[in-house]
TrEMBL record:
Keywords: Hydrolase, Protease, Serine protease
Protein name (Swiss-Prot/TrEMBL): Putative signal peptide peptidase SppA
A Gene Ontology biological process term: proteolysis
EC annotation from Swiss-Prot or TrEMBL: 3.4.21.-
Residues passing through the membrane, by range: none
Peptidase S49 domain ranges (all copies): 108-257
Annotated organism of origin: Pelotomaculum schinkii
Amino acid sequence: MKKQIIAGLILGVAAISLVLAIAMKPVGRTAENSSAGRGEVGVIYIEGTIASGRSVSPFEAQSGAEAIASSLREAARKPGLKAVVVRLNSPGGTPAASQEIDAELQRLRNSGKIVVASMGDVAASGAYWIAAGADQIVANPGTITGSIGVFMQTTNLEELYGKIGMDREIYKSGPYKDMGSPDRPVTPEERAIFQSMVDDIYNQFVDVVARGRHKDVAEVKALADGRVYTGRQAKELGLVDQLGDFHDAVLLAGKMAGIAGEPAIVEIGEKSFWQGLFAGVKGNLLPGLGWTDLLEENANSLNPR
């Protein structure tokens, strides 16, 4: 009986290992509508939350900035590509990750490629930051976009800690080393520091939109109060160039690149089994709207573990 149990456990572990090995193996994106002699338009997908790094969570759709940047560089190196469509279905992400992708997108444009942003269900906050850098933006009338803004938040658990009898003592090298600590209120000086960070990143965001949309900073700030817009509203406000679906974006990219007829589509980049399985889990959520809690990103550096 014990031998049967042991054998069963071994077989179970082997089966699980095999499934995980298959699951974590990158699955290459396949080319669609490819045909010899036709002009090619590359497609790069940005799905789920946007974060720095290469790795992605196995339980949520997420786009790593390094992987997206690598795909953009790959597109720049392909001589057959005349244009690239960046397909966005994302509530946003961290500022730095969006900046990294935007910087690589500008290098792609400087290489001579046309770049068209295509918006799916949601392309807000950090995703709009990226879209603003494209030559043209195409959105569905019902796309949720905009959310041009930044937020931080802190949580004060001091009273809760007191009720459960928990107390901590902090030893720090400077007065602001434990900014955002949940066991005490934020001081006025810390509040001013946090607000200055939010204001600085907000101004960076506004500058990117003003540059990409050819608008005055004051005009952008009138629209950049954090609210979201439908695709149709964004078109009326000049935040989007054209209403249409993904296919319309491909046709526009081909036309701008001088491709006669319908272009061939070449998908660029790889996604893992898990990304395909969980794609859209968070991409279709209304963000709050957009920036992953900036405080959480800062908390790791402010309070290293």
